[in-house]
Specification:
The protein is mostly helical. It is 46% helix and 6% strand. The chain folds into two domains: 2-89, no CATH class; 96-185, no CATH class. Strands 1-2-3 form a three-stranded antiparallel beta sheet, with no helix packed on it. Strand 1 (2-3) and strand 2 form a beta hairpin. The protein starts with a strand and ends in a 5-residue tail after the last helix.
């Protein structure tokens, strides 16, 4: 179990050690690595992932939780608060929401679909409308959502504070932006760097 403190590093009571970032960032790293390994477009440099178990292990492990239990402590934690683990993120302040939405857009991407359709699918997945996951509570949905990727949800203009509905070109631009970020992260991950 990981205990989260906003102003401090995360302390894992079971391991009696510190983990520099939120658990879900490591989930995303793992998921991007699996995608990169399965894709013919990327060549994972496994020599940069010493201790992860290699391609067969990462692709064969049941899920991230199992990977975390078996390898997380040695790879991502440090006994000393403020220490550097064997594997660390490339930034101290990763943009978690952007990483998450990039991953979602990439997994929904299909060149035969319109960017509007992809945005709608990500939105419906996020809110549990698609049936792929359970519905989120309203408070949680306001924190983690993809409402800006759906035509029928209001946005707040960052400068004026006025509410408006996003246009098709805005949604297309956002979907393409997340897809490009995902491809950039896949390239980085295949070279041993995240994000």
């Amino acid at each position: 179990m990981v205990v989260y403190y906003k102003e401090k590093l995360r302390y894992n009571k079971d391991w009696k050690s510190w983990v520099p970032h939120r658990w879900r960032l490591y989930v995303y790293w793992y998921k991007f690595l699996v995608i990169a390994e399965k894709s013919p477009d990327y060549k994972v440099q496994w020599d940069k992932y010493t201790g992860w178990g290699g391609s067969n292990y990462v692709l064969g492990v049941k899920n991230f939780n199992e990977f975390w239990k078996e390898r997380g402590e040695k790879l991502f934690s440090t006994k000393k608060q403020g220490g550097t683990p064997k594997f660390n993120l490339s930034t101290k302040q990763p943009k978690t929401e952007s990483i998450r939405l990039s991953l979602l857009v990439y997994t929904k991407w299909d060149s035969k679909k319109s960017k509007i359709q992809i945005g709608k699918e990500v939105y419906e997945y996020e809110f549990g409308i698609s049936g792929e996951k359970r519905k989120r509570e309203e408070a949680v949905s306001n924190i983690y959502n993809a409402s800006h990727l759906y035509v029928e949800t209001e946005r707040m203009h960052p400068q004026t504070g006025e509410m408006y509905y996003p246009s098709d070109p805005q949604i297309q631009q956002d979907v393409r932006k997340y897809y490009r970020r995902a491809k950039k992260m896949l390239k980085s991950v295949s070279e041993g760097v995240f994000p």
